[in-house]
Amino acid sequence: MKDLYLMRHGQTLFNLRRKIQGWCDSPLTEEGIAQARRAGELLRERGITFDHAYSSTAERACDTLELTLEAAGCSLPYERLKGLRERFFGTFEGESEDLNPPFEEYDALFSRYGGETGEAVRERMVATLREVMERPGHERVIATSHAGACMSFLSDTGDPRELLGGIMPNCGILHFAYQDGEFEFIELLGR
Asked: Of the candidates 89, 121, 145, 157, which lies 20 to 30 Å from 20 by C-alpha distance?
């Protein structure tokens, strides 16, 4: 059995300003930087090390991963993967979160304006992470992504709201077991 640790990036300026990020980017805040360092310290305290690391192509995810690995005492290069990007929200990118409909209506609204559906994000994330975990020597992997993408991935194993009891926190780390092409949710670290 292999282990995947899927982490959300730290708090960003757009998180603070309540902006829809999607594929657009904003920098980590001081709190986001501190969150990433605390996540690394948690991993170090638990003795969790990695043989490979991956990140979304967004700078907020790359910066989070670099800070986390440094704080964990893990000197490891990483690969950026487009398949780990956040959901694309079409023309709503960079707009106020006040425009968000209830979660159940995301697909109907965002797909009409060039955005991705939740199912498309789930399929992309599952395919990307399955391909990663099938690579030789990938026994314990960390990957940094985004709240919506992480929740979409988690939905492949069960209802994210039931499994997490709410939203995916900044720098929360989802731990999955991987075997025979299937992921099994184990726990959320860093609540």
From this structure: 157
Identity of the amino acid at 29: T
Q: Give backbone dihedrals phi and psi of 59, rounded to 5 degrees, phi first.
A: -60, -35
Q: Where are the beta strands (DSSP E) in 34-158?
A: 52-55, 79-80, 140-145
Question: DSSP code of 86?
Answer: P
Tens digit of each residue's pLDDT (9 = 90 or more) over 63-96: 999 999 999 999 999 999 999 999 999 999 999 9
137-to-5, 49, 77, 91, 117 alpha-carbon distances in Å = 16, 14, 15, 40, 33
Spatial separation of the C-alpha atoms in residues 175 and 156, rounded to whole Å: 14
Q: Which two tokens stand for residue 175?
A: 């731990």
> β-strands 140-145, 2-8: how paired?
parallel
